Amino acid sequence: MKPWENNIRKIKPYTPGEQPGVKDIVKLNTNENPFPPAPGVMKALKGMDPDSLRRYPDPSIRLLTAELARFYKLEEDMVFAGVGSDDVLAMAFLAFFNSDKPILFPDISYSFYPVWCDLFHIPYETPPLDENFKINRKDYYKENGGVVIANPNAPTGICEDLSFIEDILSHNKDCIVIIDEAYIDFSGKDSAVGLIHKYDNLIVVQTFSKARSMAGMRIGYAMGNPVLIKALNDVKYSINSYTMNSTAIIAGVEAVRDAEYCRNAIEKIIKERARSEEQFKQLGFTFTESGSNFLFVTHRTLPASEIFNALRENNIYVRYFNAPRIDNYLRVSIGKPEDMDKLFAFLKEYIESRNA
Ligand code: PMP
Hints:
This protein is of the alpha/beta class. It has helices spanning 39-46, 62-72, 84-96, 113-120, 162-170, 226-236, 246-257, 259-282, 304-313, 337-355; strands spanning 26-27, 79-82, 103-104, 124-125, 147-150, 177-180, 202-207, 220-223, 285-287, 294-299, 316-317, 319-320, 330-333. It has two domains: 23-36 and 260-355, Aspartate Aminotransferase, domain 1 (Alpha-Beta Complex); 39-257, Aspartate Aminotransferase, domain 2. It is globular.
């Protein structure tokens, strides 16, 4: 071993879902939106002058944060944008979690949270979800260095009401509470954005990757009071001033403007989710109540790992987490009806052959 090898930062990184390079697959493994982005996004991209790429983008990302502020009825200095919500969340962990006390998030949640804690040396505790994968709010009443709640949670899809979020906020007024709302648009429930004026310890993080169909463009954003947004900007300008490229800024603005298109896509996905629930039930699966664009399913008799491998060998990709308590579950993104039909046709045949 060379001496410098001792000086490398060692970390167990997050494992992103597979992005196979082949076209002919049914891809239900990374909760992407199966519909294209809004027409205005396509138009903006086609109309973009490549010569404009000579210039650095606006480091303040003002066009986009102003558009988001208008949409959510906030002031411009209450919005921060970044390269996907992963980027925004990482900056938020760095900005807000500097206490010696552990931050708190559920044992089953977005598996990136512990990675950022390890990377940034943030102590953390993970209160267990109950046997129905629900958060016990009282676990978050104790002293802590900060709280992170994904609502809807991942990978369970379960969404809590705003009163539940408010209860956690009111019990944690001396620390920052991050509500990660990557999937909130599919829940039919209110976003915590409406609580920002009431709680100066609240940061709400959302993304363009799900409801707005732009996972490939990498846009995420945080909303909170101006003091918190300034702290996020101070961290950003201490790492990389130009996080977001000019193309993403222009395309992002168009996606926010066409809210109606986005709402239509969400409705189609929610409808398909309901149809998928019926199909899963008929095939002997049970699942948690989903407020997201995926279902978290387990089969009565067949192990999830076996089903996962069988699907994959047949070019149907879903997500499997080989982790305690959830290793008999599959997370299945809601795709277009024709994709879901392929999934269910395969599952029907497979389960029948295994039961024969
Ligand atoms: N939060 C949660 C709960 C997620 O599931 C994801 C998607 N993997 C993200 C944040 C990050 O999404 P993105 O970086 O694409 O905005």
